[in-house]
Amino acid sequence: MILQQWLTGQLIAIQLEYFLILLVSHCYFIEQRYYRNTIEDCLHAAERLSSRTF
Q: How far apart are CA 22 and CA 45, in angstroms?
């Protein structure tokens, strides 16, 4: 049971890490392409990614 909980925790951590990497790289891409990196752009990206990832 403890092992199962640990594995579940690891999977959630990996998924969150993947989500954060996607979010950061998306915001970086926006900044490079449009020379601006607004919080709004990042929030919209987060909304799109979260609905797709989780």
A: 9
Number of domains the chain is built from: 1
The pLDDT tens digits of the residues spanning 8-45 come to 888 888 888 888 888 888 777 766 666 555 667 777 87
Residue 53 CB contacts under 8 Å (≥ 6 apart), including other chains: 15, 18, 19, 22
Contact, 48 vs 17, CB < 8 A?
no
Domain holding 43, by residue range, is 2-53
Tokens of 22: 């996607």
